[in-house]
């Protein structure tokens, strides 16, 4: 099972990808997580990506395609994977399609999450991330038990630069101009599934499963 998750920042793609991973035993491939790890490790790729991500901009296509190809070639992706946050542009979608064809692979379903814009800003500005293990929290929907401390490892939580309001507005603008046209691209491919992203994670996941199984 090879699935692509589409939708604006804050639509719940990461949460749904993790739930798909647990249910079907296929890895979550998140370009954002891979690039943030590279930034944390202070690699050359990480330094370049951090500048762009902190400004709410997209990382260069060839860089991301290289990261994706290397990841899905690994053994744990043999039975499938969930692409979370990629592709983001028509060019990336075309490059991904060429890459998969070259690997004798294809996409089974593309799930597009639809969420109101104001709800997205509220979701993202409330997010907090563990500075050590990367666990995610939210000020209202999933607050930590004690202050701004991670429940899992005790490290301090922080607000990512790309979760601050001004950056979020830029990210949503980028999505509307560059990523939203992907819906038509995949609609023409015949594998687009549109899902309402409101409600609890479990409710949304039920909708996802009904579309991909």
Overview of the molecule:
This protein has 213 residues and is α/β, with parallel strands linked by helices. It is 48% helix and 15% strand. It has helices at residues 13-24, 31-40, 44-54, 61-72, 90-102, 117-125, 165-179, 182-189, 201-212, and strands spanning 2-6, 28-30, 81-84, 109-114, 127-130, 136-138, 157-158, 192-196. A hairpin with a 5-residue loop joins strand 5 and strand 6 (136-138). The chain is globular. 29% of the residues are buried.
Chart the SSEs and their pairings.
Layout: E1 2-6, H1 13-24, E2 28-30, H2 31-40, H3 44-54, H4 61-72, E3 81-84, H5 90-102, E4 109-114, H6 117-125, E5 127-130, E6 136-138, E7 157-158, H7 165-179, H8 182-189, E8 192-196, H9 201-212
Parallel strand pairs: 1-3, 1-4, 2-3, 4-8
Antiparallel strand pairs: 5-6, 5-7
Helix pairs in contact: 1-9, 2-3, 4-5, 6-7
The shape, in one word, is globular
Helix content: 40-55%
Mean pLDDT: 89
Round the Cα radius of gyration to an integer and report it: 17 Å
User: Count the helices. How many?
Assistant: 9
Strand content: 15-25%
> What is the CA–CA distance across the termini?
9 Å
Could you give the count of β-strands?
8
List the uncertain runs: none
H/E element order: EHEHHHEHEHEEEHHEH
State the major sheet. 5 strands, parallel
How are the strands ordered across the major sheet? 2-3-1-4-8
Q: Decide which structural class fits the backbone.
A: alpha/beta
Task: Please summarize what this structure is.
The chain has nine helices and eight strands.
